[in-house]
Amino acid sequence: VLSSSLPRLVREFVAQNNVSQIKHVIQILSQEFALSQHPHSRKGGLIGLAACSIALGKDSGLYLKELIEPVLTCFNDADSRLRYYACEALYNIVKVARGSVLPHFNVLFDGLSKLAADPDPNVKSGSELLDRLLKDIVTESNQFDLVGFIPLLRERIYSNNQYARQFIISWILVLESVPDINLLDYLPEILDGLFQILGDNSKEIRKMCEVALGEFLKEIKKNPSSVKFAEMANILVIHCQAADDLIQLTAMCWMREFIQLAGRVMLPYSSGLITAVLPSVCGTACSLHCLHSDIKEVANVCNQSLMKLVIPEDDEMDEAKQSMTLPAEPTSEESISKPETASSGESPLVSASRALNQPLSFPCSSERIQVTLNLDGIVQVLDCHLHDTSIGMMTRIAVLKWLYHLYIKTPRKMFRHTDSLFPILLRTLSDESDEVILKDLEVLAEIASSPAGQTEGHGPSDGSDVRPGPVELHVPARAGQLSSSGMKALECSPSTPTMNSYFYKFMINLLKRFSSERKLLETRGAFIIRQLCLLLNAENIFHSMADILLREEDLKFASTMVHTLNTILLTSSELFQLRNQLKDLKTPESRNLFCCLYRSWCHNPVTTVSLCFLTQNYKHAYDLIQKLTIRWVGRNLLLGLEAKMRFTRLPILFLSLPDLRLQLLDVKNNPYLIKALYGLLMLLPQSSAFQLLSHRLQCVPNPELMQTADSTKPSAGFKRTTA
């Protein structure tokens, strides 16, 4: 009856323009049949509504609300056959109405998204046919309401059902392909959901999502000026830290493009970006998957690109200028206390962001905003990474590179954080990696030599170490400790570069660390000091350390430390210039340095003799050796095995000095050199050092044999030869 008489009846009403009767027929089909308690009646009602729509033809658009609602209700029917008939009925209704159904798109999409996960294969097949039809209509129409659709898409994109996810991704791909639909404007609304889907267990869904994200990224590269980079920054930060390799790699690739395309727009989110990138620099956050190397490579590119965004102008921006710029990332307290507003409830991103203290309140546009470097947040992140002992070597190096870069580009602002960073930088000197120590020394050297460190208010917090004005490399004199002449002797050479107030603090704390960690002194002490002599002024380093050690209460440590410094001074290529400066003692500066070193070198008799040999004070060296003979041998006050070992190494150090070896040829003018060496030989026990020195002294020529005719009459001999 419905299939034959109903269409004829409806067509008659259409011809008569009898709207009330048409609505009455649809109401009867809906209320008494489609929504009936009896399955057969519901089936008949669905068939009747489809037949009515076909009979209405182009006029069906006037009654779509009444036609669609009862059919959609049947989508939730417990009987799978009725759900299939509902799909079939809606297919016929949509096919007739075509573009007229677009105002009802959201309810249709909502119903289809549920049927996409239907367990019955027939229902799923029917929903796929309806889905394709609806996609064709959207593609060919220019009246699609994207603004009204986005809230629903944002809600449904967080579905965990595989079929629903596949349905969502397929629609995103369709909408992205339509030229008249600019889905890129609303990408921040759905980007987090897309990354969630990218972690699906189904390879097919992951591939579809990867394609969708790839299409969006292509569009971003084509139209960077219209992209809301800032609104998506923290989304990428979160997913760059994902456990899934594909999610992490994709998010990292997006971040790389964002940094390169958006530039300094990303600066307010730099602390979060660094948090995401640094663990991946050495791969600690990655699994042993084949994507591991790709993640590491992209992370390094991101890190380098982000560092380039920091410029010297960031250090010159005054407070008034900053107050007019884009606010930086809020503090943890602000991000927790500030309520989040969302049009469709709290998404998983909000929860994750709150857990990470990441703000989700973005500026409306990335354009026309003057951005500011969030230096406090960056330093806090870097400081946390340095304190984390579980991070890898490459990450620690990356952190130190960041600190060095910030001290170079923004020294004035960085020195506000130096007091908090200084202790951990000193502790990092105990790292197992030489590369980490080298980079750490570069940072400490920059702190110790930067002119910004001398700015008022940026000095060290320890008042005892503060030096007003140009820093003199000596400890402030206590009452009655030094005479006025002694004070003058301890002053820094005016020819050396002026160090800031952190230089002396660095020297004091470095020696304290060597004192508390003797193993560090034994294994890395010489290495650290030699590198510092390359990075800073060697004379200042030796002058200041000698000055500090002069008042060291632990005499054993002072002796050990002086011995280490002496060995470096005699043998290190980095100290070649300083050795030359000490050889002649012709300038006031070199004599001043010698006096400063001599006082501290007296902590260790062996080093004192060494310094005299280096500075060619051979008579004084001979006198000291005589004292050693009386005190060490005569009174049997040797300092044990350690002192003996140092003493036996002394000839090796002396004979490594080429000037000293050549002066052995001039016996007549260097008698105290020969005497001192023989005195030293007498003190040495039988050892390889004894044999070495003895063999060298046997090569010293007889003064009488060195006399020649030419030497007695040089002028006459020269004239006769030339004649």
Automatic annotation (TrEMBL):
Entry keyword annotation includes Electron transport: no
Instruction: Supply the alphabetized keyword list.
Output: Endoplasmic reticulum, Endosome, Membrane, Microsome, Repeat
The segment annotated Disordered runs over 319-349
Q: Which InterPro entries does the entry link to? A: ARM-like (IPR011989), ARM-type_fold (IPR016024), Vac14 (IPR026825), VAC14_Fig4p-bd (IPR021841)
Q: Where in the cell is it found?
A: Endosome membrane; Microsome membrane
- A Gene Ontology biological process term: phosphatidylinositol biosynthetic process
Name the major location.
membrane
- What Pfam family is a match for this entry? Vac14_Fab1_bd
Subunit structure and binding partners:
Forms pentamers. Component of the PI(3,5)P2 regulatory complex/PAS complex, at least composed of PIKFYVE, FIG4 and VAC14. VAC14 nucleates the assembly of the complex and serves as a scaffold by pentamerizing into a star-shaped structure, which can bind a single copy each of PIKFYVE and FIG4 and coordinates their activities. Interacts with NOS1.
Describe the task this protein carries out.
Answer: Scaffold protein component of the PI(3,5)P2 regulatory complex which regulates both the synthesis and turnover of phosphatidylinositol 3,5-bisphosphate (PtdIns(3,5)P2). Pentamerizes into a star-shaped structure and nucleates the assembly of the complex. The pentamer binds a single copy each of PIKFYVE and FIG4 and coordinates both PIKfyve kinase activity and FIG4 phosphatase activity, being required to maintain normal levels of phosphatidylinositol 3-phosphate (PtdIns(3)P) and phosphatidylinositol 5-phosphate (PtdIns(5)P).
PANTHER family the record matches? PROTEIN VAC14 HOMOLOG, TAX1 BINDING PROTEIN-RELATED
Q: What family classification does the UniProt entry report for this protein?
A: Belongs to the VAC14 family.
The protein depicted here goes by the name Protein VAC14 homolog
